[in-house]
Amino acid sequence: MEVQGRDLLSILDVAEELPALLRRASELRALRAQGKLPRPLEGRALAMIFEKPSTRTRSSFELAMVELGGHAVYLSPKEMQLGRGETIADTARVLSRYYHGICYRAFRWQDEEELARWASVPVINALDDREHPCQIVADLQTLWDRWGGKFEGRRLAYIGDGNNVLRSLLLGSAVVGLDVVAAIPEGYRPDPLVVEQAREWAERKGSTVEIVDSPKAAAKDADAVYTDVWVSMGDEAQAAARKEAFRGYQINSILMGHAKEGAFAMHDLPAHRGEEITDEVMDGPDQAIWDQAENRLHAQKAILELLMGRTRPGTRRPR
Ligand code: CP
Ligand code: NVA
Fold first, then answer.
1. Is the CB of residue 96 less than 8 Å from the CB of residue 77?
2. For the whole model, what pTM was predicted?
3. What CATH number is attached to the domain comprising 59?
4. Which of 269, 289, 295, 296 to mutate to test ligand 1, by most ligand atoms within 8 A of the CB atom?
5. Pocket probe mutation, ligand 1, options 55, 142, 300, max atoms within 8 Å of Cβ
């Protein structure tokens, strides 16, 4: 049976399969190391539309497609008719006739939803201003590997901006039953609806979701401490105010000292060294940052296999 146009816009879109995705991503990493990767995407093609820069997401999507037997085409809106006023809807309809899936890095989540609404093949969110779901699949895979596949009783602290990464992290952690506590200054907290959604999942899983003021309180007894940039792509006009608001929301060795013995730092990258994280932590042994970056490749494969393994272009789905 053909699966037509199942999207991944929010991490909640793969909530049910999330544990299986983490297991599969880990397995695909091992298979790659053994030179035994399967080719479930043979003859499949992915369009990659990026409105903003990317190092990890772009490379991992493209390489994941190629290594699983498929093909990827990078499309910059500046060089597409999209940049000259062709609508997102028309673009989606046309690309759906060529490709088996579209990944989209957008400034506005409304545009992400518009593309998904009109595409008849899966649309995968490669980051927008609301979420960064593929990043969090890789991050949870990193934790899954380090903690032997068990999240129960673990505590993840997040320090900094209540941004796209934090939203997906709150939701994803809650879905797998990982206790999550985020220290975010007033005025930069995520919308209450996301916190509510995360809490509903956590309740079902017997875990907790907390938002606090103090980085120290969040880091206390944490098994891992995560941060992201203070100024996300698109927020540059507020850079000065943000740097002021987030002063003190930094992962450094003093903050890590409040975490549990054996705890490690996490960052989705790119980092602004000296702002949200110090060189000492990034370049030290107590971090999982480079594993997170590598796992983007393996997690992307698990995602692509799930969503695109059985789709074909030109199909319509009921709206
Ligand atoms: N973490 C992440 O998404 O990095 P890029 O912006 O380089 O893709
Ligand atoms: N929050 C960051 C993540 C970059 C991968 C941004 O949106 O710029």
1. no
2. 0.96
3. 3.40.50.1370
4. 269
5. 55
